[in-house]
Amino acid sequence: MKFLTRITLFTACLILLSGVATAGVINGSVWYDQNCDGIRNTGEPGFEGARVELYKQLGSGQWAPQTPYNTATDANGYYTFGDGHVGNYTVKFIAPAGYFFSPMDGDSDASTDSGNYGFVNYTNLPHCNYDVVWDAGLCKKICKEPLTQGFWKNHPAAWVDDPLTQMDLFKLKIGDITYTGKDSLINDVLKQPVKNDARIILAHQLIAARLNVENGACPKTADLNELTGIIADAEEWLAGQKNKVSPSASPEAIAWAETLDKFNNGNY
């Protein structure tokens, strides 16, 4: 929950006397809100690995990423951007796949209107030593049923425009070619016959799996991190394949495709 602590009013704020201005600390925590009430109840643990981004308002009124631009919460759910901050600041919390934000204004400061990310109401850090704390609660999503690659191929309007993860849904690199935008991914990849090419076999299932994760589908019998790891491995492999690859020459890629196909059909 956001609050400002005036650390040393006498030494930090008498700028006219000292000529030295100390700047504010920005930090906070992310926790697993088990009952999703927006209150951090006793026993609710910190959430490790949540991404937090830092922004400052420029003179033009625009919000600009700062250095360091982002950090991740530690094993106890805490994060910090350190001190040295003066001016109008806000942070942006990113909800990991499978989670959404707790109701705002209890102990959680993250807005809930964007689904996958939440900004906090900005605060001005004056030329004094202030400590600003912004927290966010995360609730588990109710998982949706996955959809097949055939569905995604034929329903472009269903493609998610507001990603829930760090995956770039609208870009896929296969060898030297980068397919950008859903029209390209549908027409140049999903609608292309596989022609005994392991790259296309895998790409079809990979595109659908990424969309399913963003749409809120979860594995039924496996861990979500395991699935997103397969997706990352598949993306990396495809980016390195410039030429057609026989399925028999790449059993690992075919195994990934089979796993993603199971997920896309609700059997993983």
Brief rundown of the structure:
The chain is 26% helix and 25% strand. The chain is of the alpha+beta class. A hairpin with a 5-residue loop joins β3 (51-57) and β4.
How much of the sequence lies in strands comes to 25-35%
CATH superfamily of the largest domain: Immunoglobulins
CATH topology of the largest domain: Immunoglobulin-like
Shape: elongated
Describe the largest sheet.
Answer: 5 strands, mixed
- Tell me which CATH architecture of the largest domain applies here: Sandwich
User: Whole-Å distance between the termini?
Assistant: 38 Å
Helix content: 25-40%
Query: Residue-averaged pLDDT, rounded?
Result: 85
Could you walk me through the main structural features you see in this protein, from its secondary elements to its overall organization?
The protein has two domains: 3-140, Immunoglobulin-like (Sandwich), CATH 2.60.40; 149-264, no CATH class. The strands form three sheets. Strands 1, 2, 5, 7 and 10 form a five-stranded mixed beta sheet that branches. Strands 3, 4, 6, 8 and 9 form a five-stranded antiparallel beta sheet that branches. The chain has a two-stranded antiparallel ribbon with strand order 11-12. The protein starts with a strand and ends with a helix. It has 268 residues and is α+β, with helices and mostly antiparallel strands. The protein is elongated. A hairpin with a 2-residue loop joins strand 11 (171-174) and strand 12. Helix content is 26%, strand content 25%.
